[in-house]
Amino acid sequence: MTKIILPQQTIGIIGGGQLGQMMALSAKEMGFVVGILDPTTNCPASQVADWHIKAAYDDSKAIEKLVAKSDVVTYEFENVDAEVLVKCTELGKLPQGLELLKISQNRKHEKSFLSQLNLPTAPYEIINNQDELKNGIDSLGYPSVLKTCSGGYDGKGQVVIKHEKDIKSATSLLHFGECVLEKWLTFEKEISVIVSGSSHSQFEVFPIAENRHQNNVLHTSLIPADILEDCESQAKKMAKKIAKNLQIKGTITVEMFVTKNGGLIINEMAPRPHNSGHYSIEACNVSQFDSHIRGICGWPLPKVILHQSSIMMNLLGEEANRAKEWINQKPEWNFHYYGKKEVKDGRKMGHITILSNSLERTLEEINQTNIWK
Question: Which residue intervals define the domain ATP-grasp in the entry (predicted)?
Fold first, then answer.
């Protein structure tokens, strides 16, 4: 895509969650009209958009309507039916394209793509039935992780197999279709590398986040990641190689494991801005959402500058209510609430970003609040 989308033109976003909301906020600051397609009434993104088409993500008629009303279209998550977007691509309105979406939707395709680029992944086997599962475990050993090829996120759609007795419960995943069996990896840290690209053949990399999870959901991101300089350089190089190969327009995220000796293994990719990049709103000269909007609209990208080290904390479920009690006491904290009406256990209700001169002292300050019990 070579055309430039200018202020007062329309960006259509498929998905109305918090990522879509933050995309929309960036787009509105730049002067765009923003439309949302999402099946939920008063979803977070619709609260800040100009218009909202309430429809399912695989509703081809609704997608056609979104495309017709938009000058450019993007998506906030990867569980979108790629086939429904073919016409959008043919019209030149989907600068992200379909290749990255299809790759990131399916772990088998993702592993194959990374292998073709000679990028490191965990040893794996493709599993279609119980016999293949047993043979795969014989090959990879215990523990292993069985994951559905499609549809999983935040730890859903996967089972850790530690002993032979776990095999029976793991086979339930095979009812959802083809799976990937991965060898369990011992690693020191989890990191994410966010890259934005534009039609100017520019690829800008954000400071690397070190991520800590609880119950398979991101809990804390520390920026910059505490990793060796060579490791940082290699991680950025690997992420950029992916972005260049796919000629990325907009923002993508590559999640990686750092091993004990500083080696890197790619875990998965997301064809969009990422939870771990929320820090960039306050901590950088340009946010991951700003770069995404610039990239899909054909604008040049500024080089990313980290103003200050930072910590991003997710607010899940009741944590969001407990955090409200600290708003009056923490003027230096940046509180973000997504406008979700119903509080559910594990549901991402918001996040807090704290700029810091000492990540260690800030972590202690966080612990003393008891927001995150």
Answer: 111-297
pLDDT, tens only, 324-361: 999 999 999 999 999 999 999 999 999 999 999 999 99
Give the residues of the chain that fall short of pLDDT 50: 1
Count up the domains in the chain and report the number. 3
Q: In this structure, are 253 and 153 located in the same domain?
A: no
Let me know whether 199 and 164 are in one domain.
no
Mean pLDDT (the chain, rounded): 95
State the pLDDT at residue 153.
Answer: 65
Residue 147 host element (H or E):
strand 144-148
Q: Quick one: pLDDT at residue 5? A: 97
What is the distance between the alpha carbons of residues 290 and 280, in angstroms, rounded to a whole number?
10
Q: Which two tokens stand for residue 261?
A: 């000796």
The binding site for ATP consists of: 107, 147, 152-158, 182-185, 190, 213, 267-268
Separation between Cα atoms, residue 292 and residue 323, nearest integer Å? 29
Question: Residue 295: which H helix or E strand, with range?
Answer: helix 288-296
The annotation places the binding site at 107, 147, 152-158, 182-185, 190, 213, 267-268
Q: Please, which residues have CB within 8 angstroms of residue 6's CB and are 6 or more apart in sequence?
A: 297
